[in-house]
Amino acid sequence: MVVVMSVGADDEDVARVVERVREAGGEAFVSRGRYRTIIGLVGDTGSFRELPLSTLPGVEQVVQVGKPYKLVARELHPAPSTVRVGPAAFGRDGFTVVAGPCAVDSREQALEAARAARRAGATALRGGAYKPRTSPYSFQGLAAAGLEILAECREETGLPIVTEVLEPRDVEKVAAVADALQVGARNMQNFSLLKEVGRLHVPVVLKRGLSATVEEWLMAAEYIAQQGNSEIVLCERGIRTFEPSTRNTLDLAGMAVARRESHLPVIVDPSHATGDRTLVGPMALAALAAGADGVMVEVHPRPSEALCDGPQALTPDELEALTAELAALARTLGRPLTTLPQSTKGASG
Ligand code: PEP
Ligand code: MN
After folding, report:
1. Which ligand is nearest to the CA of 129?
2. Does the chain have fewer CB atoms within 10 Å around its N or its C terminus?
């Protein structure tokens, strides 16, 4: 961190900054120019950030050098991480497809969707038992009954379960069934939830907030990692912009930045990014071409009957066609689609 003093700052102003930095356990190196003095800070930058340096007299600007996140940064952990979700893997060696319904609507629907996901070559099943809905009058999910259905889907297909947890008080209950806990876009900065999922040793799929910068997203991941859980998969799901023709705007550049800045795997959710089933395939292929480590897509046996997000759900046939295209492109790019180990239940080869 560097403190830039204003042109009119006097010795007393400089001494005050140096003193505050030393009190916080750091060192301050003063460099006096012809018109301006700058002070370089060395030590625990986290503690300097708490200091109100920019409000001290004579200070013009405090410049942050380096990243505010550490545990999730590539800077200190250059090797990319692989995150295992049950028998599935997310990492830089392959491309992982997660598929499933937006919500568990019923036992029959979830089982059909799970079979479709398995048939198409997905290696994990998504599906919400607890749904964050904009309207309190919309279907809120089957809750505990939905979790039981997801467990049955795993039992039959062998696919590990990615499912959302909305509240800190539900974390243990959802984690008892989930192979990965999803923290949704609306909860990306729910710090008590982040800390709670960080205390467990269950992988977390952390979606980017609707209006979060990449740095805020990585700082949310830092909250989880700071509690001891580094099994985090980042998920870009579109951000809100001025463009109304898609549900959100898929920020593939943001995905690539997150992937460059962090060692964590980064996947893309083209379903929520576009809100439109005709755009899910093109954006999934674009995500693969742009370097993403996987996609998470919504599929429903009968999208017109879906209780949630029907317009963006692929049919089972569409999912199969998409995974075939993804597999072909992935082979060309030398990053094959990941598969489940042969020993996994339901493995058909
Ligand atoms: C979901 O995955 O169904 C969901 C609600 O996603 P998001 O949090 O990205 O809106
Ligand atoms: Mn959804």
Report:
1. 1
2. C
* Residues at Cβ < 5 Å from ligand 2 ion: 102, 309
Question: Tens-digit pLDDT profile for the chain (349 aa)?
Answer: 899 999 999 999 999 999 999 999 989 999 999 889 999 998 877 788 888 999 999 999 999 888 889 999 998 899 999 999 999 999 999 999 999 999 999 999 999 999 999 999 999 999 999 999 999 999 999 999 999 999 999 999 999 999 999 999 999 999 999 999 999 999 999 999 999 999 999 999 999 999 999 999 999 999 999 999 999 999 999 999 999 999 999 999 999 999 999 999 999 999 999 999 999 999 999 999 999 999 999 999 999 999 999 999 999 999 999 999 999 999 999 999 999 998 887 654 4
For residue 194, report the distance from its CA to the centre of ligand 2, in Å.
20
For 85, the enclosing helix (H) or strand (E) is: strand 83-85
190 and 282 co-located in one domain: yes
Q: Residue 51's domain spans which residues?
A: 2-63
Span from the CA of 68 to the centroid of ligand 2 (angstroms): 31
Pairing of strands 204-207, 180-183: parallel
Q: Are residues 262 and 136 in the same domain?
A: yes
Kindly state whether residues 28 and 162 are assigned to the same domain: no
Number of structural domains in the chain: 2
DSSP track, 146-205: HHHHHHHHHHHH---EEEE--SGGGHHHHHTT-SEEEE-GGGTT-HHHHHHHHHSSS-EE
Q: What number of CA atoms fall less than 13 Å from residue 61's CA on the CB side?
A: 8
In a domain? residue 172: yes
